[in-house]
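User: I'm new to structure prediction. If I give you an amino acid sequence, what do you actually give back? Let's try with this one:
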Amino acid sequence: MTDDALTPASATPEPEPATAKPRRRVVRWVVLGVVGVVALLVLAAAWVGVRGLMAKSELEAAIPLVSGLQDDVASGDLAAAQATVAEVSARTSNAHALTSDPIWMLAEGLPVAGPNLTGFRELASITDDLVQGVMVPIANLGDTLDPAALKPVDGRIDLAPFAEASAVVDSAKGELAASLERVTALDTSDAVSQIRQARAQLEDMLGPLLPLLDQASDLVGIAPKLLGADGPRDYLIVFQGNAEARALGGQTGSWVQVTADNGKIELVRQESIAVLRNPTPVIGLSQEQLTLWPGAGYDPSNATMVPRLDLSAQTAAAFWNNRFGVDPDAVFFIDPVAIGYLLEGTGPIDLSSGDTIDATTAADFLLNGIYLKYNVGTEPEVNASQEVVFESFATEFFAKLMSGDFDPAAAASGAVKSGNEHRLLAWFFDEPERQLLGILPFGLETPVLDDTTAGFGVYITDNLGSKMTYYLDAKVELGQRVCGADGGYEVRVTLTNTVKPGEGASIPDYIGRSQGGNFRILTTLYAPPGSTFVGASGWDATFTPVTATDGQYPAMVQRLVLTPGQTLTATFVLSSPDVRLDRTLEAYVTPLARPTPVTTFDYAC
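Assistant: Good question. You get back a string of structure tokens that encode the predicted 3D arrangement of the chain. For your 605 residues, that looks like this:
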């Protein structure tokens, strides 16, 4: 047997098919292709994920910046606010760019993840559009409407910046409206809850902003008109003296007319009440109002006696028109405490009398010091000497404002503070203007009764013709209760004579009317509509109370007499079928020389 015979027939190699190598190559390429696609998908997912985290980080970093921006605006730090807006702009711009590249857009077609990516991108885009189209231009307006740039120069305020600002605000309004429309239309129903919540929060935030921009647009738009762009405007400024209290502040002793014409502002005339007196009423009041406020409408010193700002303004305007033939476009009432707040912006004022007043001394001097210093001679002589001082103050204060020699931000802050305390009031006779300017704190509504608030008016009036309410401190406490089917209110009024015992005799007769430091104070309460007075206690038993109705408000007048150092508390008690314990109790109280605290107490059954 040969070796060949021992070799198996299967060991003989057969030729390889011609198609085997190409098939193997195809498989290899398919496998590599699949691996490549998977790798690309992984890389794309990683790309989108990383950029999403980066975008999320940018937006989260912007949130505390916006909170800080509110602090910058509140403090009036324009430079800091603009720097903050610039940083917010950079953050939101980065977030928008990170979510807008082609890979992100392709990934939005994926199931499950796609709606989340689309929602995130849209929200980042809308947020950035808001910042670039609203926040940045509004912040840059700070340069255009910088209070320092709007200060008068040679008695004139430049009106051009208002036109520039109006265009910017209108553009921002359009951008905000478009963004709100996009947010409202954005469908995030298939997205995760975080995306849905972010969309809802953005919509809730933008909704209230649109009316605010509307208001800003209105204010910027009307400013040139108020400054006489459409023709001269006449404003009557009436100074109140809280040392002789009236319902809305005090005796109206010094009056000034200011005219604005194409930005130029001039003090045209100033007069005392002596030349304004009229033998007949200058305004018609109801018999009920005259019952509560006898003598109102006859004497210019009582222009703010009736506690309705519209009637007080009409009364003042009628006195002025009756004497000078001028119908003011608006009437402003201001008291010496408010003047002190404004002097924070102007610095000290040197008077022709040799007196100097500043923010810390204005109220005390104008309410008391002037009467202590200038009180020699007959009453007409005393009045004349005091009027010289008041007129000097008005002239010098106005001159300082018109020269631009003041800090406008501080003065504006003082004006707002005065308005919030009802010490600076304004009434515009043109109703559209009045409605538009109603967002500013210089109006005064009658007490409110609505679903959330029950309001009272506590009006304090000097009953001696003295200057003694400078020495008066007050406190008001409000209570309400529902006992079974019966509802009711109690209002406690506490008055303090701050004249020290034994010092009353040293008070000049011009101030104290020879009463040895004693007070006679009328207190009038306006109660919520539907209320009925059912009791009063602690008041002067020798005084006959007066009850009447002023429009929808039931009202009662009572009196207290206080000796030096004395404190008395007296009450008004009312029933009402409409007491609701979920309402907030509020009270307007006549502004006095010092703040009057208003609190609530537990009015138990």
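You can read the tokens as a compact description of the fold. Here is one thing that stands out. The longest helix spans residues 20-75.
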